[in-house]
Structures are given as structure tokens and as C-alpha cells.
Design a protein that fits this description.
It is built from 16 helices and 15 strands. By secondary structure, it is of the alpha/beta class.
Length: 376
């Protein structure tokens, strides 16, 4: 049995989808199945966990760019898969890259349907070609893995995929990386290559406007600072994306600009320590397909305030404080509560730690590999 795994759309292993693929590759058990990766040539070095298992990597699509890569999947993938002799092919970023036809059974993981969120104006940066071809390509998959029930329902409503072909398999948490650190009174947290002054509020996400709602959080932080007069800082950890300029311009115009810090792309191996050192994690996104940051913060013993939007209430359940993402006053109210109400903060920490135990990469990968094998 030969299984092809598509690494296109996984952002060289540094995005949430890239981490998802790495977690799968780390946990592929010894078996009679032969796994093979294919993607951009530079991905060969990014997915080093695969190399340790002697999984072959095949570089394809020499022309860079999302449009050319989408066309490669439509026009050239079928012949490529036939020549490689795949018995089944797995697409970890099926919401970004998919073929229209395949000579073998196909399984794809859909992490979100953000290409269809918002108005036409806010959709422009998500790619017209993707929105045009994605629904038909999704319907051609033999099985679809949705990371939440919210995404499953969107697949049914937006792409008209049959419910019987969709399996909900939530993401996991790496509990060896995300766990509570001992509390201390350090005023400075040193995480190479940065030094963070404490206390700080954290939002770890790519700088994408308006989807991730960084500007709404900046407004809420200003209200929070005005009300509390406390020396908190706001840390944005994430790489630049569409709309970054607007986010940074708004931050530079803020009266709290000296307390707003952008890390840029943050080393994934250091992120757990940054999360654990925060006084709270705030997730103001208008749309999330799963809410990985909320679960990782909870596993680290950090209280979470997040938007009452998309999949976040499903993922965080009763262990977070919720706010209206369109209302910065409401967002600020929750932030103020988490620094002034010690009993509430304690309950959030304890509830979050208990809730995070429900999420395991081992269980997630086991179910994913079982679905891939069943598709044969």
C-alpha cells in the first residue's frame, strides 16, 4: 500500500496546518504502508520528522505562487499520482489545495471555510480561483476530515458535501510542550531571540486583517489600560499576512503604542513558553475553524477570553470567557475581569486545564490514519 501526502498549502510547516502535518508525521507508526510526501522542493527540509522515518519526498511544481500551484493540482496532479502508483492520497490542507480529479481514492482535512467568510470586499484576499474550484473539488473527495462540527456544517451548507462522507476529528494538543510552568515573580521573560516585559496579554496568530480582528483587540486594549491603569503589554506573535500594514498603522496611532509589541514569525519551539508566561490569552477572531490557540493556552494553565464566533464556543466550551468580537467594550470587560477577579481567574485556569485533557494528538492521528486506510 502506497500513500501519498500532499505538503502544498502547509506553509513550510510553520502555520497551524503545517504543525498539524508535522504532528501526523511524528506519529506514523511502523507498518506495511509506504508513505511518500510531495510538495515544494523547500518543504523537503522543513518536514524533517518525515526524513527521520526515511519517508521519501518528491519535489513538484517548480513555478511558485498559489495560482500556479492550484493549476498544477487541477492539470498535472492526476498524471503525477498515477505515475507514482499511489493507492490513496491524503491532502492535509484540503481547504487550500485540492485536485479536481484523482486516479486513486482521496482524503482531505478541512481546517476552515474562511474563503467564504464575510462580505465580497473581505473575501478578495482569499483568492477568487480557490472559491471557484473548491466546492466541486471537495465534493469529489472520497472522505473529508473536518476539525470541528462547525466546519462540518459549513461543508454541508456551503459546499453541499454529503454528511455521510464527513468525519469530525478535532485537533490535539502536544501536552509535552504545553503545560503549566511554575509561577514566579520575574518581571522579564527571556525567550530567544526576545525579552518580554511582564505582565503581558498574548494573541498568537498571523497578522491578517480583518479576519483575525487584531484592530478590535487594539481598541479593547486601550479601554483596558484606561480602566485598570496597570502596566500590561499586548504581544502579537505571528507572521505577516494580507492586511498587516493596516494593523501596524493602527497600533502606531494608538496612545498605548509603547505597550504593543509585534514579534513577527515566532519560533514554534519557543511558543509554548511564550504562551505559559502570559497572564491571559485573548482570541478576538471573527472566524476560526478550530481554535488551536485556545486549547494550547488552557493546557498551559492560562485563562482564555475569546470571541463568541464560529467554532470557538465549540472548542473552548465552558472554560473560556466570551465576548462579541464586534464590540471592543465587551472584549475589554472580559480582559478587566481576568485581572481584577482572582476567583474567576482561578476557575478559568482549573476548568481550562481539565478541558484540555480531552484533546490529544495521539487520538487525533490514530483516527486520521484509520480513515485513510479505510478509504482503500
Amino acid at each position: 500500500m502506497k500513500i501519498g501526502i500532499d505538503t502544498f498549502g502547509c506553509n513550510a510547516g510553520i502555520s497551524g496546518v503545517g504543525v498539524y502535518l508535522k504532528q501526523i508525521l511524528k506519529r506514523i507508526p511502523p507498518s506495511g504502508a509506504l508513505f511518500e510526501l510531495f510538495g515544494w522542493e523547500y518543504d523537503r527540509y522543513m518536514f524533517k520528522e518525515a526524513a527521520e522515518k526515511n519517508i521519501e519526498f518528491v519535489g513538484r511544481c517548480k513555478i511558485s505562487g498559489e495560482t500556479s500551484n492550484l493549476l498544477w493540482h487541477i492539470l498535472k496532479y492526476p498524471r503525477f499520482a498515477r505515475e507514482r502508483g499511489y493507492d490513496v492520497c491524503f491532502f492535509p490542507a484540503a481547504h487550500r489545495r485540492l485536485p479536481n480529479k484523482s486516479p486513486c481514492p482521496t482524503i482531505g482535512t478541512v481546517h476552515d471555510m474562511a474563503a467564504y467568510w464575510g462580505t465580497r470586499r473581505t473575501r478578495e484576499h482569499l483568492g477568487a480561483l480557490l472559491r471557484f474550484v473548491l466546492p466541486d473539488s471537495l465534493r469529489r473527495l472520497d472522505r473529508i476530515i473536518a476539525v470541528s462540527s462547525w466546519v462540518k456544517q459549513e461543508l454541508i451548507d456551503l459546499a453541499r458535501v454529503k454528511e455521510s462522507r464527513i468525519d469530525v476529528v478535532p485537533n490535539g494538543v502536544d501536552h509535552e510542550a504545553y503545560f503549566p510552568r511554575p509561577a514566579n515573580d520575574e518581571s522579564v521573560l527571556r525567550i530567544k531571540p526576545f525579552t518580554f516585559a511582564r505582565p503581558y496579554i498574548l494573541y498568537a496568530a498571523r497578522l491578517e486583517h480583518p479576519l483575525k480582528n487584531h484592530i478590535g483587540l487594539i481598541r479593547a486594549f486601550e479601554i483596558f489600560k484606561q480602566r485598570t491603569k496597570l502596566p500590561y503589554r499586548l504581544v502579537f506573535a505571528g507572521s505577516n499576512s494580507k492586511g498587516t500594514k493596516k494593523i501596524k498603522e493602527r497600533a502606531h496611532a494608538s496612545p498605548c503604542v509603547s505597550d504593543i509589541f509585534f514579534t513577527g514569525p515566532f519560533p514554534s519551539e519557543s511558543l509554548p513558553e511564550l504562551v505559559a508566561g502570559a497572564d491571559m490569552v485573548v482570541i478576538p477572531s471573527f472566524y476560526e475553524g478550530f481554535g488551536q490557540g485556545a486549547i494550547e493556552a488552557m493546557a498551559s494553565g492560562v485563562p482564555v477570553a475569546c470571541a463568541r464566533a464560529a467554532s470557538l464556543p465549540e472548542t473552548a466550551n465552558h472554560s473560556a470567557l466570551y465576548f462579541d468580537p464586534y464590540d471592543s467594550e465587551d472584549m475589554a470587560d472580559r480582559m478587566v475581569s481576568l485581572v481584577t477577579d482572582e476567583e474567576l481567574t482561578r476557575r478559568c485556569r482549573e476548568s481550562g486545564l481539565e478541558h484540555a485533557k480531552n484533546f490529544s494528538w495521539e487520538r487525533s492521528v490514530e483516527r486520521t490514519l484509520r480513515i485513510i486506510q479505510e478509504s482503500l
